[in-house]
Every structure is written in C-alpha cells, then in structure tokens.
Amino acid sequence: MKQNPVFLLALAVCVPVGLWGVLDPDRMAGAVLGFTTWFMVGASWWWLTLCSAFVIFAAVLALGPWGRIRLGADDDRPEFSTVSWIAMLFAGGMGAGLLFWGVAEPVTHFAAPPGREGGTPEAARAAMVITNLHWGLHAWSIYGICALVIAYFSFRRGGKPLISTPLTGLIGGRTERGVSVAADVLGVVAVVFGLAGSLAMGTLQMRSGLASTIGTPETGGVALIILAVLFATYMISTLTGVEKGMKLLSNINMILAIGLMLFIMAAGPTAFIFESAVDTLGSYLSQIVSISFRLYPYEGLTEWSASWTLTYLIWWLAWGPFVGVFIARISRGRTIREFCAGVILVPTLFSILWFAVFGGAGIYVELFGPGGLSALVADNVSEALFAFLGYFPFTGVLAAVALALIFIFLVTSADSGTFVLSMLTTNGSLNPRASAKLVWGSLVAVITAATLLSASVEVARAMATLGAIPFSVVLVLQLVGFLRALADEPMGTAAAQERV
Question: Is 253 inside a domain boundary?
C-alpha cells in the first residue's frame, strides 16, 4: 500500500532525533538548547508580536460580526455539553502543565523577578502577573485560533481536518502541493516534539511525587519505568478508540482538580487566596497591553524573556496543531463567539484562579509562613507541588490525588496526541489505522525517553518548543487563508446562524 508522503517525511525528521537522543543524550540536549535559545533571543521581537497578535485577532473575531458564524452547517448544534467540552479542553490543552507549574512558577518569579528585588510584596504581585501572562489569554488565544481555523475549514467548508487545508487556493499552481505537504509535515513535527517535551516534564514530576510519598529513588531508571507504564496505558486507550473514554477521563480529572483546589482554598489561607485572585486579575488586566509587548531590552534581560515568556508562547504554538485539531473535533456546531468565550475566556479565568490558589498559597508560605519553599523549588522544580502539599494536612492523600491527576492528564494528552498525529499522516482520516497509531505513539515515547535521559526540565521545555519554530510560518499562512475565507461569508444572514 502506498504511504502518505507526510507520514514518510515526518518519520524522516523525527526518527533520527529520537535515535540521537537515545545514543547520545547529552549532545542532543546541548544542540536542542542551543538551537532554541539562539532563535528565541535573536528573533524575540517576532515571537512576542506574533503571539500577541493572536490575542488581538481572537478579540476581533469574537466581538465582530464574524462571531455569529457557526462552525458547521447553520442548523448544527454542539455534540458535547458545555461542562464536558470545557473539561476536555483542559485535559487536551494544559492540565498536566497547571499541576507542574501551579506552585513552581509563581514561587520562582517571587524569588527572582526580572528587573527587581525578589522576596518582596512587589515581587509577589509581579510574579502572579508574569505567570498569568504565560498561562492566560495568550496561551488560550493561540490554541483557540489554531483550532478555529481548522474547525471552520473542516465543518463549515467541508475540508479535511489537516494543517494544510486552509492553504488550499492560497498559492495555486504546482507549488501548492509541495507547500501543503511541507505544512502538514511541520505540523506533525511540532506536535511530536511538543508532546514529548510535555510528557517528559510530567514524568519527572511523577517521579518526584513517588519519591516524596513512597520513597522511590529519583533515578533515570524510575523515570523510564513510569514512562513505560504511561506508554502502555495511552496506547491501549488510543488503539481502542473509545471516544467516551476520553470524555469520562476528562470529567473525572476536572472533578479531582477542582476538588484539590477547593481543599487548598479551605485548608490554606482562604482570605489571602481570594484577595490574591482579585488583585492578580486587576493587575493582569490593567497591564495586559504593556506586558504583551515587553522584552526587557533596556535591562539586558532578553535572555530571561527567551527562557520564560518566549519559551511558553512558542510551547503553545508547538501544541497548536495538536490541540487545535483536537479542540476543533469537539467543537462542531458552536458559533465563533461561543467558541472564543469557551476556549479562551473561561480557561483563562480558571487559570488565574488556579495560580492564585496554588501559587498564592505558596507565596503566603514564603511571606507569612515558615518559608523554605522557594529554596526547594530552586533545587528541584519537579518537587514543587509535592513539597507544597507537605504544608497541609492529609499530605499522603493529597499527593495520591495529585499523582492520579498527573497520570490521567498525561494519558489523555498522549492519547489524543497520538490520534491527531495518526490522522494528520493518513490524509485526515477520522479513523486512522492502528499501525499509524502504533508508530506515532511509539516514536513519541522514544523521543520522550531521550529527553528524560538528559534529566533536565530545561531540556524538556526546549524540546517542547523545537518544532514550533519553523511551524510559525505555516500559522501565518493559515491566518491569511482564513481571512480570505471570512471575506466570502454572507454577513447579511449571520444573525440567523446564531440562533439557539
């Protein structure tokens, strides 16, 4: 049977990286860090401008007349309830990341904020604003626009759910076929590296959690065993192809996450947490324009921007093809306005509350409590959540819940990621063959293992952003194709399309 060229070319890019990482992890880690740092520092202005443009574009779409357009036929209605839809957005989008960085990032910025003294009330406020810049409107606007473009062309225009579909007719001639294949290949590469980097961070956090709860050694061997269990679980899940299973796991995880958050609220400094949430929301909204374009060139902190803000934003770009296809798949029948509210605003508000609870309580420990948390985080960022839970009653139960959350989030992310990779490399098939799932699920595990062998969270983050650097060009072309398609929409009948 003739193989899809996207499948073969993507393998030709990803397999050598996986083998290189297994055979020589230190050199691979150095090359990945050097490549990503050079691109982010040298073109920092491009990355920040591009990602901030996603926020502006999302606002224009939601508030303008295009917001009434339905993602599908005019009489289509959503397949999933709003609660299940939101739960699946988190499971596929950034669930494990919120657990990994919920305490670690605010406490890290509190101890060493860019351009100011650490450990002060001003540093605490700056830390919360910076964290929400990384996890708020920018992140979800990138996801939202990537998903919206694919959903629009797939459901409203009847195209295939491929990265290249919005490019159809944009270039024309013989060149278009080559550009379309290249776009799909770059999308696959971005997903593979982005997923591998995120799975590596989640595996390291699980290893730290097991070490703090049952005393397992924090070795590379333990990390690989965790990955093997994770691989077996997500491969079983993705090969069965039971869509209801993904919905069920997402709902369970959302309940567990909210339950854990409510417990920290009740058992921790409750008033301080709510005050922190309100204060952070106000500071974030009042500074959103300035921080969206801040690179610290006058302070000589461009490298700090590259290692934090730009790394996050490009990380979201890397996950854009995967999360975009996944979100598009579960969002048929919603209007663009409803889509933007559900995919961008609701998750952003939840993220602000999440970081106010975990990060705010962590900063409270430093400012008004026994302290010591920032030193633990600086020593090993993977231990941050479990060290934080040690300040609360029922630490063992909380740690077990956190481990279950991380594991299920990783399984759902890897499951849906493997499906999307298989779909993108089988010409947009909604039922990709099992062999394709096996190939991509295995390759993601190999590259994750190679990343784990470096034993560095920084390498995992760099790996997560590696594929997004060339993919950014494809995103710009997608937006041009999307704008051309919107210009053809009959706005005079838009009101009828919004009826419920």
Answer: yes
407-430 pLDDT, tens digit per residue, is 988 888 888 889 889 989 998 887
Per-residue confidence band for 54, with pLDDT thresholds at 50, 70 and 90 = very high
Dist CA 427 CA 210 (whole Å): 41
Residue 240: alpha-carbon gap to chain centroid: 25
pLDDT of 231-250, one tens digit each? 999 998 888 765 566 667 77
What is the per-residue pLDDT for 243?
Answer: 59
Task: Give the model's pLDDT for residue 292.
Answer: 94
Element (H, E) at 375: helix 373-379
Q: Classify residue 495: in a domain, yes or no.
A: no
Domain range for residue 435? 5-486
Is residue 41 assigned to a domain? yes
User: What CATH code is carried by the domain that includes residue 400?
Assistant: 1.20.1740
The strand pairing partners of 335, in sequence order, are 70
Here the tokens at position 401 are 């819940």
Determine if residue 269 is left, alpha or beta; phi over 0 gives left, psi from -120 to 50 gives alpha, anything else beta.
beta
Mean per-residue pLDDT for 272-300? Answer: 94
Q: Which CA distances in Å does 345 have to 135, 222, 332, 417? A: 12, 39, 18, 24
- Band of the pLDDT at 212, cuts 50, 70, 90? confident
Whether residue 500 lies inside any domain: the answer is no
Alpha-carbon gap, residue 166 to 151, rounded angstroms: 10
Q: How far apart are CA 378 and CA 123, in angstroms?
A: 16
**Beta-bridge mates of residue 70:** 335
Q: Are 197 and 464 in contact (CB under 8 A)?
A: yes
Residue pair 323/93 in contact (Cβ under 8 Å)? The answer is: yes
Task: Round to whole Å and give the CA distance between 85 and 327.
Answer: 9
d(CA 32, CA 43) in angstroms, rounded, equals 17
54's tokens: 């996603």
pTM for the model stands at 0.88
The type of residue at 151 is A
Q: For residue 103, how far is the Cα from the chain centroid?
A: 17
What H or E segment, with its residue span, contains residue 415?
helix 395-424
Give the count of domains, the chain: 1
In this model, does residue 181 exceed pLDDT 80? yes
Nearest-angstrom CA–CA distance, 259 and 357: 12
CA atoms within 13 A on the CB side of 435: 4
Q: What pLDDT does 500 receive?
A: 43
